[in-house]
User: Fold these one by one.
Assistant:
Number 1:
Amino acid sequence: MLDLDRFVEDCRAAASADPTHRAVTEIVARALNEPSNVLAAVGEPTAGGIFPIYQADDLTILNVVWKPGMTLMPHNHEMWAVIGIYGGREDNIFWRRVKDDPDGRIEAAGAKAMSTGDVTPLGKNIIHSVTNPIEKLTGAIHVYGGDFFGIHRSEWDPRDLTERAYDVERAKALFAT
């Protein structure tokens, strides 16, 4: 079983020594080498939600559980992130800003499907939307290079893809309903 306290300490040390996501990506990849060990450490998901494991100004580690069929609108993080799937699947659409658009509109720029055991780093400027396309809960460890809940960032309206302030409470409610 993964020792969560040790995992947190390893991530903190890596983020402190290397301000990029590279060292943390290696730690998450090592943990996800045996996804069942991560599952044993965090417990079998029973409901969707955002479950903090560690939170500080310089690092946040979350256990994120996506409900079946759930989609989270395009958003950014304003910090690097490393995502590791310990059970299920998530599909990411990557977006880019439309040059010189006064409303901050975005357009699709790529996609990536992640399955159990996959680990993906996301740079500070990435904009993405996420869908759990399967009929079961998907569990993932998310490590962020900052305070995930405290930083100002953006989300985009799913209808017209215009930029607005990210509403963390709306996101939490989406996971919980």
Number 2:
Amino acid sequence: MPVQPAQRPRWSQIDTVLLDMDGTLLDLQFDNYFWLQLVPERFAQRHALTLEAARQALTPRFAARQGTLDWYCTDFWSRDLGLDIAALKHEVRERVEYLPGAEGFLAEMRRRRLRTALLTNAHRDALRVKDVQSGLTRYFDVVVSSHDYGAPKESAEFWRRAQAEVGFDPSRSLFVDDSLAVLRAARAHGIAQVYAITHPDSGGGRREVTEFPAVPRVADLLD
């Protein structure tokens, strides 16, 4: 259900729109397919394992890195898994798609002449592949990867560095993401208006979010 009018952003109080990429603008179905299906298949082939054995081997390795910068790093996983992760992403790049309504939302931000910044944990290699396929970065004034700072969006250090580079006023900024851990970090930094996305993967169900104002799609934030 779309967000109710009283829950929509206070657009008159926003100068800068800060947006996540995967699961907010681009369909998380790509990443879920990549990490849950393609990587286990190629890991199994590379190491002469059954698919089930490959998944059993990968699960604890993934869990150990979740929430760290390594979790999002193509270089780290290429070394760790013996696979060229950037090349694999390029191989299946045609699966990269916008979430419904996301591109229209970005066009509306340009029409309103609001300053826009893409804040992503994605490695620059992954960002490049997705940008070539989608043309995403043309909608943004600034594009920030957490790898530029050596700190993930879940950390206070990321937000200190991002504010210094982008130059946003937290009290007059909107931030949208699908990760609760990242949203908490943004709130702790003082971002005035923080919204969660509840339907980041078009192939999956909606999540229940009560900790933050939440919408199924970023387009539901529009008046």
Number 3:
Amino acid sequence: MIHVTAYSNKDGLQKNLTLEQLSSLDWNWYWVDFESPTDEEVKLLDSYFHFHPLAIEDCLHELQRPKLDYYDDHTFFVLHSVNREELEREEIDIFLGECAIVTFHKEPAPSLDIAERLLKRSKDMSKVDEYFILYQILDKVVDNYFPIVYEIEDHINEIESNTKNLSMERLLDELFDRRSELLTLRQTVHPMRDLLYRVLNTHHLEGVRDRSEYFADIHDHLIKVADIIASNREMTQDIRDSYLSLNSHQTNRTMQILTVISVIFMPLTFIVGVYGMNFQHMPELDTQYGYLVVWIIMIGVSIGMFTWFKRKGWFD
């Protein structure tokens, strides 16, 4: 599906235009959005817009790294947005030319919808151009990272406090899921941060220099998101180490208790084994109080060893 929006001083802001109407009139700027395009619509990138074949090839390949390429009559951007529900990266490609911006994406892009709504509400259309639209798209893509990061941070805090009294195995499973999500975000945010750095320091895009403070603000947001991600990954590592240490401590305590029980029963097993051999000539078997004496000895040994272990601090 192709959405065409254009603006001219004479006709104002026009939406839902066709490519034929776009060619027939003189527009100040226009925005063409390819959303989940068909094969026939994809061919228009070459036959109608005459974009560079390498840029078109990058559009068709899945998940190119965020980047910036310069061609003779247009600049090509690759952005990564994040699907908030499934937490998967989605690619948005942008062709920026003189008085024109063309966006290409295979999945619905809420960031572009928000940018379009802001464009419609703009009071001073004389200040709107292709670079203004580029800024709005970049800004909304980056702003969408924050609620995702904050939601993951809330989950990490819940894991740390364990308000639901989950088992340690369940907590560790959830913790590793959060670390995997943070890794996905880091693989998205860091290349986007590098892309914005290139955009800010380029000499090819005059419109960016005119709005450098706005694009610098997006770059600052990406640095902030990257810092939050790094902080949360460190927190998950600390929580993981704490849980593993606690699990190791509990295992050691269990082994300690089993060791005490085994050591106490060793002499008892020896005594019972000796008098359970059933030899005929064992003087103690004929003693009147032999059974009682053996019980007293075994109980005394057990109490003595238990007291010794307690004084050593094994039950503290």
Number 4:
Amino acid sequence: MNPSSPQPRVIALWGPPRSRSTAFARMMMERGDLLVLHEPISNLLSVGHLDVEGVRVHSPAELLERILRLGEDRPVFFKDTTEYRYLPYLDDRFTTRVVHTFIIRDPAEAIASHCAVNPGLTLDEVGYERQFEVFEHVRRATGSTPVVLDSGDLLADPAGVVRAYCERVGLPYRPEALSWEPGPRAEWERTARWHQDVAASGSFRARANDYRRTVHNDPRLAAFRDHHQPFHDRLAEVRIGSATRSVTS
């Protein structure tokens, strides 16, 4: 998106579980100029209903319409994790009216972190294949390559990556949002055990974790990594800071 274009009304961030997407959303909350929704579609699919700014919705179609309507009053940012398959719910209107962006993380790291929280992790729940499916759907529908950021790059250069992201999606860059007060958030309550790291943090920073099961000592997790790595790698080719080129199926 051209920085001189009008500010977008709805921005989505799609990421596999444990891709540091919640930390990114926490930074977006700190800006103060966006309505930030935490994993609205996956919460709806998990519970069967969701209260969104005073309105209860019961289906993905109702939810996506509600998000678009909210975007008519103020800019909206939402992030969701791709352990679910979302493509059946993304109609042309929602696909083309929303600025869709994507966050990736080295699959070996993400899988070990995911398994530590969810020991019964399945192949599909790793999420990279489903993330790439959404990416390709958006790319084909809009005729342009969506924004991709790598959370490893984000930790290495928070200011540079966030500034580039803001420029690409048409938001003003707010460096003061790169740090925040640690602590839990009410919207994280249902899934609090997934967000302990970001609740304890006050900025983008790496945390030392010694995971018991990893792709290096668990053949099942290694097979998950081997399956999802190509989808990650194709997104990594066009991430912010790389030499951007078209991704083809």
